[in-house]
Amino acid sequence: MVQLTASYEGDLHCTVTHGPSGQTIATDAPVDNQGRGETFSPTDLCASAFATCVATIMGIKARSLGLDIKGMTLTVEKHMSTNSPRRIAALPMTVTVPTPTTQEQRAALERAAYGCPVHNSLHPDIEKPITFNWQD
Hints:
Blueprint: E1 4-10, E2 13-18, E3 24-28, H1 42-65, E4 73-76, E5 79-80, E6 88-90, E7 93-97, H2 103-114, H3 117-121, E8 130-134
Parallel strand pairs: 7-8
Antiparallel strand pairs: 1-2, 2-3, 4-7, 5-6
Helix pairs in contact: 1-2
């Protein structure tokens, strides 16, 4: 169990504190939803969690395969629904891996990506395709 504490700062700004480390993250509502877009919105954090979870789980798998995937980049696009209720509709992601890999290693890394806890926790109606670019 990890405790997170959120505090509403006013004017659509919040701060959340990670209990174990004391680190904080600030949020603001996006411009298209009455905010100023000065930092991550809550749904931006959801998209960020998806990308960093995929990176972390692929890193764990790469370590077990004896691969170094340092320098891997992940780009996720957050698409919001155009109808009510307001929600994330799609999170397409592109993963670029700079490390030479075999077909078996690529398959293992791709399976790991799709098995990340955030991917498995997102609602099934959210489209979340992952495209892999292997840079040999």
